[in-house]
Amino acid sequence: MAGGGAPAPKQDELQPHPAKDQLPNISYCITSPPPWPEAILLGFQHYLVMLGTTVLIPTALVPQMGGGNDEKAKVIQTLLFVAGLNTLAQTVFGTRLPAVIGGSYTFVAPTISIILAGRYNGIVDPHERFKRTMRGIQGALIVASTLQIIFGFSGLWRNVTRFLSPLSAVPLVALAGFGLFELAFPGVAKCIEIGLPALIALLIFSQYIPHLLHSERRVFDRFAVLFSVAIVWIYAHLLTVGGAYKHASPQTQLSCRTDRSGLINAAPWLLKKHLASKDGSLRWNSINKCIVVFAWLSVLPPIIFN
């Protein structure tokens, strides 16, 4: 070819869009992060957003495993610690998107099937049952994670994604989000005098105050969760110390009072024990592994696009 230039690409070859350093109407991009003080506040706000869904998983599963507040606090600590490690890894080596990698609700159903397995029904001691059930769940999740690593690093799904449109992930992600309504809104209804003001405060700070102030610095809408959580928590604490729930039912007190969760007192702030067996091994039950592996296979499409 004259001039020694590179050959022109064929018409049928897909060419990637050129990368942009800054997208329009977006304050911060991957190559233009916010200042450190604002980044810390935004990170803490993102942590508060995912805290509810993270706590919801142990709250629903640990009591069925025979665990109490101590075991629930340990599971929450483990989920938050691993979520931090995964988030740090994906921001350094992964997509670098501002997303917290939290617990997946995909594995809740297979985990419940493992919890309700008949081999754990004969254990009388609740603490012993919790430990044995946790070992079985750990072994199953490790096997499922190993398969996910193999599929990811082998590049097998690279050939599949060529025939899939990003729009195909929209229904899957939407259905996963809609599934949380079944858990979230009943939780709000358990203490409507606190849940409803929280929703109203979030709407006011994120949608109405920015339009009323017309400020160039987007403070209220950017930190709407921080303002809403702080105000509603103070409001709930005032109701608690003021005796508003003194004669309420135990379920109402558990849902509305700020001193009834028992997690702060039960949490071991320096976790030294682990949930493995005495010899450090895990329970590798074949049925558990199959259950979690099939659950993982059923959600491969949304994993691809995340």
Automatic annotation (TrEMBL):
GO annotations of cellular component type: membrane
Cellular compartment(s): Membrane
Transmembrane regions: 44-63, 75-93, 99-118, 139-157, 163-185, 192-211, 223-245
Residues forming coiled coils: none
Bilayer topology term: Multi-pass membrane protein
A matching Pfam family: Xan_ur_permease
Family of the protein in this entry: Belongs to the nucleobase:cation symporter-2 (NCS2) (TC 2.A.40) family.
PANTHER family the UniProt entry points to: XANTHINE-URACIL / VITAMIN C PERMEASE FAMILY MEMBER (PTHR11119)
Protein name: Uncharacterized protein
